[in-house]
């Protein structure tokens, strides 16, 4: 089963009990479809970049929540009942790409031996020509800076 993030943006005046009720309903729906809720994170009240217009007004703040879940690929169609939820301003479902979990992540080449292909002698070769600056010229320039100005004054 693929991993999904469901972002929920709720109205700012929604109480914690109502918020947890909505999250529990979504979690039960996922669990009933043999999915697993793996993470739940609340970002608190956030300022929006623009107002979201609903029937009861325009909202410039919202409570942001992120639910991470492993669910079947048709979960997007199953969550469309959230469109009718009056406590929500917006919701978004994002699928994680190219992620492997469990024994799938331990393949034949687990990446442990990737760095052994580099040879230390190739990275730090002492035979390369090193460009050295002539420090004597720069020291003379710094020492002679003040002398030219004093000679011109009468």
Automatic annotation (TrEMBL):
It comes from Rhizophora mucronata. Belongs to the bacterial ribosomal protein bS6 family. Keywords: Ribonucleoprotein, Ribosomal protein. Transmembrane segments: none annotated. Pfam families: Ribosomal_S6. GO terms for biological process: translation. Residues 125-154 are annotated as: Disordered. InterPro entries: Ribosomal_bS6 (IPR000529), Ribosomal_bS6_sf (IPR035980), Transl_elong_EF1B/ribsomal_bS6 (IPR014717). GO terms for cellular component: cytoplasm; ribosome. One of its GO terms (molecular function) is structural constituent of ribosome. This is 30S ribosomal protein S6-like.
């Amino acid at each position: 089963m693929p991993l999904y993030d469901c972002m929920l943006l709720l109205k700012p005046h929604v109480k914690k009990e109502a918020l947890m009720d909505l999250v529990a309903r979504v979690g039960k729906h996922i669990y009933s479809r043999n999915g697993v809720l793996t993470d739940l994170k609340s970002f608190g009240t956030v300022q929006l970049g623009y107002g979201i217009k609903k029937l009861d007004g325009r909202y410039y703040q919202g409570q942001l929540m992120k639910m991470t879940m492993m669910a079947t690929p048709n979960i997007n169609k199953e969550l469309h009942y959230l469109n009718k939820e009056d406590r929500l301003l917006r919701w978004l479902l994002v699928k994680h790409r190219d992620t492997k979990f469990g024994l799938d992540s331990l393949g034949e080449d687990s990446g442990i031996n990737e760095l052994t292909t580099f040879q230390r002698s190739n990275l730090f070769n002492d035979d390369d020509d090193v460009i050295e600056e002539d420090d004597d010229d720069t020291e003379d320039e710094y020492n002679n800076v003040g002398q030219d100005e004093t000679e011109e004054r009468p």
